[in-house]
Amino acid sequence: MLAISIAIGQGIACKKMSSKLEKSVLNGERSGTGSATIASSVPYNWSNVAIGGGGYVTGIAIHPTQGNRMYVRTDVGGAYKWDGTNQRWIPMLDGISTIRVDGMALDANSPDRVYLALNDGVYRSDDRGVNWSKVFSTTYDGNGDLRWAGECLAVDSLTSTVVYAGTRTDGLYRSTNTGSTWTKITSVPNGTKGVRSVAVDPSTSTSGRSAIVYAGIPGTGIYRSTDGGTTFSAMSGAPASPNRMVVVGGKLYVAHTTGVSVWNGSAWSDITPAGGANKNYCGLAVEAYDYQKIAVCQRYSTFNNPLYRSSDGGATWQQMNTAALPITKTLEAPWWPNSWFSSATSALAFDPLHHGDLYYTDWFGVWFTSNAWAAGSVAWTTRIKGDEETVVLTLTAPPGGVSLYSGLADVFGFRHDDVTAYPTARLYNINEGFSIAYCESTPANIAILGASGNDGTGTILATSSNSGTSWTVRTLPSGVKLGRIAISATNPDKMVYIAGGSTGAVYYSTNRGNSWSAATGAPTGAVNAIDVWSKDFSLAADCVDGNTFYIYKTGYLYASTDGGATWVQKNATAIPNKNSYLFVAARPGTNGEVWVSLDNNGLYKTTNGGTTFTKVTALTTTTAFAWGAPPSGSSTPTLFCYGTVSGIKGMYRSTDLGASWDQIDNGTEKFPAGVKGLAGDRQVFGRVYVGTGGRGVMYGQP
Fold first, then answer.
1. Rounded Cα gap, residues 399 and 510, in angstroms
2. Which side of the chain, N or C, has fewer Cβ within a 10 Å radius?
3. HSE toward the beta carbon, residue 85, CA cutoff 13 A
4. Helix runs in 242-393, H state only
């Protein structure tokens, strides 16, 4: 059993290293190729840039007897627990390597115990998510199809020792010793989509555990056990594709792909809301104090999925958010569109200790009402504080004005004037933001590339001269999509664009993107992107010479000194090709100095415009790097890297151009959603922004 320890803080938490990284000497010189020393770690405070929700919350669980025991799971952003004192969500999985959550269960008899189905198996925590033990190895897919269904884990409410785990590919398992060992229940088939929901009925018992257990298999039906989970058989007449199941008062309620049904112990009844037949229902909740009160919701990839309530056990229903039963909405994040209500809704849950308190989870966060049974308008508010689960495509920090620009999946991204406050609006009203550039000398001049689809469908270019307050849509060469944009360091009218794809060409503009000309001598396919997830950041503008731009491809640096019109290969001897991620950036304040990170092939730099390169040998891998503000009294910019030094993967900074490095992740901040982008604050010394693949944008500072 693999035990993994996590330290959880509230807000900004300073995490101390258990042991300091001792000084060591590597071969090379002070330029970064030798005599490189690794300094002791510098303690950093780490937190999230305030964005607010933005990702799919696929499940919610509330403890039946203990207050302040509420949890949510997400598809790519981990799991959170509710801090009732501070009214915020606290991430629980920032110390585990996989944080995609496919299922969740609470123990009615052990209030601090939580089970999660992560991509590599079932994990258990006995202290509300501070420490975790992996108790069962199997394969899940927290970002897969039917991730909104569930729950695939269940704990018998009569005894903590009995736990059930439905799997994606291997049927149903049961543990009778709190997860220490597991036995496969061979009478339950896996079907084509796995066992996605398990529900236990404690109304009758056998051998000290609940006698009746249900297993929901989308596309196959529902299987039932009456002997405490030892054997199961198919239920005749059951819904063929169950999404969620709830057992109360000896009855099984099922939300499924064609309606809502209830099993009373001997027969099935259809209680689908009138007018909602043959619709896909997922969210389902029953009040603990009154089983006649039920809430259900349809689930489609749209907004305003119909949400219903019934006070008579499903005989009659009222649909919320209609003229007959209006709602009011309070949005904590001001950038949220008013239309974001009940979007791809996944789960519903009543708080068993507070009558009328109803929660639901959807594409972008968590919603809450304190009176689901109000006779008039029902008041809903988002509950997203601390829930930061956007997926980062790019980050850019200019040398003046705005602190940070983020490019994100699904919500495009933001201008962050204050990283502790929610943005007031999205940077641009399109889905995917994958390239953001600024003019070094006048950083209020910026350009963005975005798209309506993650395959680059509807790629647009827009420019702004006021840091994104207003925009002008520009043209792009015919037939292109995706790619990267760069702006001259001294003249925002001059731009270079690389089209995405294996044959993507290079273009230049002298009129801020109103028209484009094909470059000559430039490499093709330098941004070999088929979608917005590409990490080929191969284009950079020199930070001093406004006519000079750089492109890296397959070991060679190409340069243009005439605004992108003509290009020449600079280095005769190739450096390694990228291993996976590629980041190219010119050094601020210095003409002709360019650094290139090649992921597992390390970090290289040139000080003569690409003619020759030297390797920064202290770093054996460099996933991403970025420049930040210099220390007080110095003009040398700070260098941040996420990579490997002396065998230790982590976040590092150097204030002497790579001659020595300080580890700044405190040995505990491991960015489990992955480092997808990096930006050093160009205005605040020591601050660095980390773009993750599901935990939003994190930032650290001394």
1. 23
2. N
3. 3
4. none
Q: Mind listing the pLDDT tens digit for each residue in 247-281?
A: 999 999 999 999 999 999 999 999 999 999 999 99
As given in the structure block, the two tokens for residue 221 are 């039906």
Q: Which amino acid is at 388?
A: E
- What pairs with residue 388 in β-bridges? 53
Considering only CA atoms, which of 116, 109, 130 is closest in space to residue 64?
109
Tokens found for residue 492: 């925002």
Sheet holding 294-298, edge to edge: 281-286, 294-298, 307-310, 318-319
pLDDT tens-digit profile of 630-680? 999 999 999 999 999 999 999 999 999 999 999 999 888 878 789 999 999
Question: How far, rounded to the nearest angstrom, does the alpha carbon of residue 234 sit from its chain's CA centroid?
Answer: 38
Q: Let me know: does 642 contact 674? Beta carbons within 8 Å.
A: no
Q: How many residues does the chain have?
A: 702
Q: What is the DSSP string of 284-309?
A: EEE-SS-TT-EEEEE--SSSS--EEE
* Cβ neighbours around 401 below 10 Å, total: 16
Lookup: tokens for 399: 């040398």
Provide the pLDDT for residue 438.
98
The residue among 327, 336, 332, 347 whose CA lies nearest residue 384 is 332
680: Cβ–Cβ under 8 A, 6 or more apart, which residues? Answer: 397, 626, 627, 628, 629, 637, 638, 639, 640, 687, 688, 689
Q: What is the largest CA-CA distance in the chain?
A: 82
Instruction: Identify whether 669 is preceded by a cis peptide bond (ω within 30 of 0).
Output: no
Each residue of 120-143: pLDDT tens digit? Answer: 999 999 999 999 999 999 999 999
Cβ–Cβ under 8 Å, residues 77 and 53: no
In 3-state terms the chain splits into helix, strand, coil percentages (rounded to 5) of 0, 40, 60
Contacts of 372 (CB under 8 A, 6+ apart): 295, 309, 350, 356, 357, 358, 378
Mention every residue, 6+ apart, whose C-beta is less than 8 A from residue 607.
Answer: 590, 592, 593
Question: Which run of H or of E encompasses 70?
Answer: strand 70-74
Instruction: Quote the CA–CA distance of 678 and 392 in Å, as a whole number.
Output: 10
Task: Look at strands 233-234 and 163-166 and give their pairing.
Answer: unpaired
